[in-house]
Amino acid sequence: MDLSNYADPATAREKILARIPMRRLREKVIETLLFLSALSSVGITVGIVGILLYESFVFFKQVSLIDFLTDTQWTVLFADPHYGIMPLVTGTVVTSAVALLVALPLGTVIAIYLSEYASTKVREIIKPALEMLSAVPTVVFGYFALLSVTPLLQRFLPNLPGFNMLAAGIVIGIMIIPYVSSLSEDAMKAVPVHIREGSYAMGATRLQTALRVLLPSALSGIASAYVLGFSRAVGETMVVAIAAGQQPNLTLNPMEPAATITAYIVQVSLGDLPHGSVAYQSIFAAGLTLMLMTLVFNIAGYLLRKKFREIY
Amino acid sequence: MAGARSNLATGARRKFYDAAFAIMGLLATFIGLITLSALIIDLASDGGSRLSWQFVSSFPSRFPQQAGILSAWVGTTLVMLVTALTAVPLGVAAGVYLEEYAPKNWLTALIEINIANLAGVPSIVYGLMALGLFVYQLGLGHSVLTAGLTLALLILPIVIVATRESVRAVPGSMREAAYALGATKWQTVKDHVLPYSTGGILTGVIIALSRAIGETAPLITIGALTFIAFLPDSPVKAEFPFVSFDWLMSPFTVMPIQMFNWVSRPQEEFHLNAAAAGLTLILMTLAMNGLAIYLRYRFRKRIRW
What we know:
The structure holds two protein chains of two kinds.
Chain A: H1 9-62, H2 65-70, H3 86-117, H4 120-135, H5 138-156, H6 165-189, H7 193-201, H8 206-217, H9 219-235, H10 238-243, H11 261-270, H12 278-308
Helix pairs in contact in A: 1-12, 3-6, 3-9, 4-6, 5-6, 6-9, 7-8, 9-12, 11-12
Chain B: H1 2-47, H2 53-56, H3 70-101, H4 106-118, H5 123-137, H6 144-168, H7 172-180, H8 185-214, H9 217-221, H10 255-263, H11 268-302
Helix pairs in contact in B: 1-11, 3-6, 3-8, 3-10, 5-6, 6-8, 7-8, 8-11, 10-11
């Protein structure tokens, strides 16, 4: 900075004062820009909900909502199209159920182990290693489910077809373990130490403390971990698109192949569908169904959290 | 006497359960870790032999032996460039606003709840939104630009959360010292808060980008091609004005889509290509995550308040 301009105190004062309005303006402009950036995240939600509702609205002008909910076939791309979402919903529910049966028990046990049993050193190694699981691209998990897990399962279940929901669900389950374990662990860690000490003082073992004191106290946090795990499982796309088959199939048997909502969206997107056709709009209706499913679970999780929240 | 003995017996049983659970916990973690190693070993043994210079420098082909990932990795690089250039400024600005500027009112609460909820939205739904909005309403087409913007929106919440956490970690005394010297709010943020939180933000950005690199579903939804035998127009030109933005509107494919294409084919040889592509992809994401962990460690060590 050239200080000679400020040699005379009077002019220096004037010059500095003259800069204040500019400075105020600049501050205001910057604050507005930052605010708009933050607001843009709300814009994403508005965009998602808006597009899904708009395209689904066009879809439901041509397909009745009753057919959509009650028809048992989803054959949008056939000459005789049926628009019953149920086969896709059962596919999604079955793969997610298998995934959660794997991820929730394992994730919870890991969380209790890391939070109550493991030494700091062990935890420092295991935690990042487990989180690597969620860093692996899902398409790689799909490859693994189709070409490694299915052949392995076929050794015990010889009738298992090459595409099946079981292998896809198991792999998704392992994939979402870190989401469940790390949030549950945080919740258990947040339970104050004196509650633990109270339990130990009564002569309880670590396991009894974990199961009878910590789990109930941390239930609201664990519930959010479960809900996030569910959202991940329901929204998972590549594993099911690769390993579970792409044929809509109204069944609750995980040993069968079936398309999920997400797999259907991928299948349609890979083809060259004209913009504005019913099949094009059907993927938005499917997407809206997916969003509503996760929304229902998020609300359930929220109510659960509210009911069981412990305040210390 | 009998009561005391049965107490001792339950005591022993409780200890046994306690120890058994410790082993179970260890086993459960190993299931996760063994799967991860099995996955990597599997890819390496299947695809390792296909990894070569020829594989990296060839276009996809009908003949599995000649096929390569050239268009895929170039596409991934260009898409990531757009993603980073969009998500980082936007996410950092939003994070700084929420942490340093935002008043406590309903609007701020709304923005915060919204960011938390966006993390639970399935990635394919972002793809549907981009298909309706970017591809058709805004007419950006099935282009590198659309893909980059889609992934930018997808990772925006991660960047915002990382920025907030590292900005929050800067002690208030730093800000007070700057204000005491007459700095304005923005000067304080720009010259003091941001430089100290760069490490944390960088770590978050790298983790976010490593997630974006592996994303497949939203890009398939917006109409990425699965077989592409040409490269987008080069961004750097020999003649004036030396840069070109034609590549932004070019059709594209990316690494995970190339892998998906190969794994969906029935022929065994293409599965080997898929494994090689997957191996490259997994090495890229693991390297990025490793870099992020290292950076976090470095910055944590260097800054002492």
